[in-house]
Amino acid sequence: MFFGAGNLLLPPYIGVQIADHVWITIFAFGLTGILLPFLGILSVVNSGESFQDLGDRFHPWIAPVLGSIIMLCIGPLIAIPRTAATTFEVGILPSFPEAKPIWTSVGFFAITWLLTISPSKVVDIIGNILTPALLVLLVGLIGIGIIHPIADYQAAKLSVSESFNLGFLEGYQTLDVLASVIFAGIIIAASKAKGYQSLKSKNQVVIAAGLLAAACLFIIYGGLIYLGARSGVDDIGIKRSELLILISHALMGKYGMLAIGLSIALACLTTAIALVSAVGSFFSKLTHNKLSYKLLVTICCLVSLLLSITGVDNIIAVAYPILSFVYPIVITLVLYSVIFGSIIKNKSPYIAAIIASTAIATLGLLKQFGFLNESAISNLNHIPLFESDLGWVIPSFVAFIVVTFMTVFYKNKAAA
After folding, report:
1. For the whole model, what pTM was predicted?
2. Could you report the per-residue pLDDT of 315-341, keeping only the tens digit for each?
3. From CA 279, how far away is CA 332, in angstroms rounded?
4. Which domains are seen in the chain, by residue range?
């Protein structure tokens, strides 16, 4: 579920920028691209059976409001258009250089619409075959790249701390933390269907599956970052899709490149079908079927089609400000729930932490869109890590601790 083919364009591009700072960058990317999604699932498992249960632990508005924002991000605004754009740039363009993205997107979303409106076993069959096949091809690609590197590391463009920051923030683009709190309900339903009913048994099976998935993702993401670092490319203006194609061709030749491109393209199709269906179901349920599933699926496909023709790099560029706002809120919700959920039962500290993260994330968003002058930005840079777009970390923790002590103090005072 987290092995999104579109995500494979991110790690090699990171590698191009980091020179030999490979391990620190893999670690940073793994935090937001692997570990936090796993914790996202765990936070829902500990809360109940869905994101609604996680939200209800703190405030009844969290699930519908934040859930809607998440669904738009992993749906028609970012993730779904990226699947079609990736299909064109990696699966179609290398073989048909004169092809236009509009026609690929029209065909892609016509198939997506048909298979989402009328679910078919063909989607499961394609997905069950393609994911293992793509995994094998990528492991082969990484193995060849480790044994026979294309080139030596380029001159360092970033410091160690900058490489860490790049890996951490680029992990946002996987969208997997956002997806994890939504996908958790599906994973929990699957575990229950297999007989894991108690909280303990559900935790055990989710942790076991999560560790296996994390290991696979670590090999793929880490290997692709390494391949990017040893690609011999020093032009950070290169398109992400072109970079993956270049690496594939250099290591596996024309036919290996085509096999990877075709597998990624078809995997993107199954991903799109699953996400469009999830978006339709979520908003249909949220509106109590006032907006029908078929109408929502149609709207989702049309919006995604229009955005997909702008290209992968443009989608990623536009996504960054949105994700830099949403991610701090979701990470705060997930981390504080997992770390403190069994210890601190009062809702107030969690709400305070989320408000603090939201406030700093909003200031960061205003900065991204140029609404703050130099004086305001200079003052905000006094907030620890604000310059690195991680300014929410300390304020959210301080808010959580302060409100925790306040609630304990007033509780003790009232008892006295």
Report:
1. 0.90
2. 999 999 999 999 999 999 999 999 998
3. 24
4. 5-311 (1.20.1740.10)
